[in-house]
Specification:
Layout: H1 7-19, H2 26-31, E1 37-46, E2 52-63, E3 69-75, H3 81-97, E4 104-109, H4 118-132, E5 141-145, H5 151-165, H6 189-204, E6 213-217, H7 221-233, E7 236-242, E8 245-248, H8 255-265, E9 275-277, H9 279-283, E10 289-292, H10 301-304, E11 311-313, H11 322-330, E12 334-336, H12 338-341, H13 344-358, H14 364-388, H15 394-413
Parallel strand pairs: 3-4, 3-5, 6-7, 6-10, 10-11, 11-12
Antiparallel strand pairs: 1-2, 2-4, 7-8, 8-9
Helix pairs in contact: 1-3, 1-15, 3-15, 4-5, 6-7, 6-13, 6-14, 13-14, 14-15
The structure holds nicotinamide-adenine-dinucleotide (NAD).
Length: 417
Amino acid sequence: MSDQINPFESLQQQIDEAAASLVIDADVIERLKHPQRVLETNLTVERDDGSLDVVQAFRAQFNGDRGPYKGGIRYHPGVTRDEVKALAGWMTYKCAVVDVPYGGGKGGVVVNPREYSERELERLTRAFAVELRPFIGEDRDIPAPDVNTGQREMNWIKDTYETLENTTAPGVITGKAIDSGGSAGRAEATGRSVMLAAREVFTWLDRDLADATVAVQGYGNAGATAARLIEEFGASVVAVSDSSGAIYDPDGLATDAVVEHKQETGAVDGFGDTQSLSNDELLTLDVDLVIPAALENAINEELAHDVAADVIVEAANGPTTPAADRVLADRDVRVVPDILANAGGVTVSYFEWVQNRQRFSWTEQRVNEELERVIVEAFEGLIERYESTEASTLRTAAYVVAIERVADAYTQGGTWP
Ligand code: NAD
């Protein structure tokens, strides 16, 4: 967890801000500000030299009123219980804003995966899967990838679960490799929805994304894919970064070549004839669009004063603090919120789960077309709310839509016991 701002407090402030524009009982809003449960476990992992590590791990189940809990698992040394709770809450409202029939959940393991061999990571992942087994299931809670996890970890969790349950249940987890029951289009789904959200917001502002200059913070799954698809759309990606720093070329970067460079050297830094920048310099570059695609709290109050772009599309979860949001709103910087912009990941996870349940695979074209429909409809619904209510930002409008849906499902279910 970066910076000093507690992401769970950020989530609760975002909910309170939206609640001010909603006619919903205060006690219902209070229920929707807390997770239903959090599993905290300490995993025993055998290192390759035979020694044992104790590794802390969490799974938060935030809200299940609209469907099974759903959300990724993150491996990062900065993971905290409150971060996982916040990420689980954001998942709840993300699923609601794109109207996918899931609740929200999230998992986190306090580990630096770079310090582990592949065999050690497999033992760690299977140990977590054993702890998760009573809590997850195709109709109960469905994990997925997040920072530092991907198809490999999802395949291990599926295998552990299926072996222990003595069944096949590919829908217990999403983000799997295609041959293990994954969906076409899943790997690039988050980046694709970021591109679609950027295209839609530029159109709404009577501008053309193809004419834009773009800076992307975080060159992983979400950021690198968003950069490539935005470049394919015709925009110029002039700066990208990872935890090692940022690179800048005012004439535009060849995004695929940067991926190759990062694969070879482990960092974007040092690519071609580019200028090196810090991550803060990247976020305040004079470009048309900034895409934060790394971790929470990248744009804080102080930095928000220096943001030169007039549009931000959030690929990361929680990259803008509530105080920064207020500064950006005062400065007329439009922020397309994470819960809509990066919802492509969970939307195609939902398609993967549907295909797993039906034992029937869709083509990549069908996946991409359905994803585009979901994101465009959600964006249009958000704009309609933004223009017809008192919501001061696109984020608040998104929460207004999402909280209303979750609150409706919660109250329709009644209170029991
Ligand atoms: P990833 O591990 O593939 O990539 C993360 C990237 O961010 C890496 O390049 C890393 O070097 C970089 N990074 C880390 N700390 C940084 C820092 N301080 N400054 C600059 N760069 C930094 O992870 P990902 O899956 O792409 O996830 C990135 C963000 O997108 C997270 O907030 C995640 O929750 C969110 N997200 C991911 C998905 C998905 O499907 N992968 C879906 C929705 C949201």
